[in-house]
Amino acid sequence: MIDIRKVxxxxxxxxxxxxxxxxxxxxxVNEGDFLAIAGHTGSGKSTLIQIIAGLIDLTEGVxxxxxxxxxxxxxxxxxxxxxxxxxxxxFEETVEKDIAFGPRNFGLAENEIAARVDESMKLVGLSAELxxxxxxxxxxxxxxxxxxAGILALKPKYLILDEPxxxxxxxxxxxxxxxxxxxxxxxxxxxxxxxxxxxxxxxxNRVIVLAQGKILFDGxxxxxxxxxxxxxxxxxxxxxxxxxMQELRRAGLNVGAEVITLDEAEREIFNIxxxxxxxxxx
Length: 282
Prior knowledge:
Strand order of the largest sheet: 6-7-8-3-9-10
Order of helices and strands: EEEHEEHEHHHEHEHEEHHHH
Number of helices: 11
Strand content: 15-25%
Mean pLDDT: 89
Helix content: 40-55%
Distance between the termini: 57 Å
């Protein structure tokens, strides 16, 4: 479990440029969670995940990974973080060497490194045939998966993904989201930072909304998307399909305003069509 208690953080404290990024942040992430963190630009999302990953030193509060302070080496290694556009950090001449870089720096044996490369490529849906390819010749979606595989090769227990679909075309985005969903099913606990309410609706079982460095909401996506005032305060919008179903309901159609995913909308529309067809035949 990741435990965050009363975390406050201020940039450039006691200077004219002082800026408070986080205020009294407390929550826990349980093993097996798929937690989304949402919020407008400047809400504190990036600062929070860097503190959780141990990349920013705590000045006030506690962050523990499975009971150990995040600053401890063993605790720190249980967290993997993938920043926006991680493909810009690729640098090796082959996919295999790039994924192996982290494990090799950990001093692992070559047979263990090879096994981890194979396993992490499989986890993100990369073909073994790409091992000897240059990562710079791959598509945008494939590059993103290579970067994620490089983190997975370190075998983190908790994986933080910061806007993982940013800049991808719709096909690559959907493919990557499907692989992320598989990672979660395989047992990886995921913290997913995103401004896309549609992605959060599809993947997360829990969402935390930040606004001005404070937690504004902590609960299920379905509950969040029914609370328009909280969304408004955070500068967020519900998924497009939820907005559509709410408009249809306001127009007098008997549809579920709580619909939050495309699959749910398709079922709802199908049920309405079936019901009307049955009424017409009576």
